[in-house]
Every structure is written in structure tokens, then in C-alpha cells.
Amino acid sequence: MNDFTTDTWHKLRKWAEAELERARVRNDAVGLSEHDTAAIRGEIRMLKRFLDLPQAATRGVVVEPD
After folding, report:
1. DSSP readout, the chain?
2. pLDDT for the residue numbered 25
3. pLDDT grade for 3, boundaries at 50, 70 and 90
4. Which pTM value belongs to this model?
5. In this structure, is the dihedral angle defined by the CA atoms of residues 16, 17, 18 and 20, taken in order, positive or negative?
6. What is the pLDDT of residues 5-55, one digit of tens each?
7. Cβ-count burial of 49 within 10 angstroms (0-12 exposed, 13-18 middle, 19+ buried)?
8. d(Cα 55, Cα 52) in Å, to the nearest integer?
């Protein structure tokens, strides 16, 4: 199981948040080709999935009653 409370995770999260913001700014640029736009959107999608890892780790976890 991953520990999403470590300093390492917090540093990675901050990096991913900054990268996500940069990708969103690039995506808003005028004159991008369809290919470039698709690539940036894919990057945005993967960064969002990465940032969702702590929530994804708890989804679908069955807690058995005592």
C-alpha cells in the first residue's frame, strides 16, 4: 500500500500540480495543431490521474463490519 502522507508524496503532488497548471496554459494557446492539442490533453489527463491516486487507493476498498 502507498503512503500518501510522506514528504516525498507531497513534493510529487506539488510538482504535478505545477505541471498541470503549465499544461493548461499551453493548451489555451492559440494556433496549436490538432495533434499538439491532443498531446497536451493527454498530459493533462495523466497528471489528473496521478493527483487522484490517494482517492483511487481508497475507492472500492471493502471494509468488513466488526
Report:
1. ---TTSHHHHHHHHHHHHHHHHHHHHHT-TT--HHHHHHHHHHHHHHHHHHTHHHHHHTTPPPPP-
2. 96
3. confident
4. 0.82
5. positive
6. 999 999 999 999 999 999 999 999 889 999 999 999 999 999 999 999 888
7. exposed
8. 5
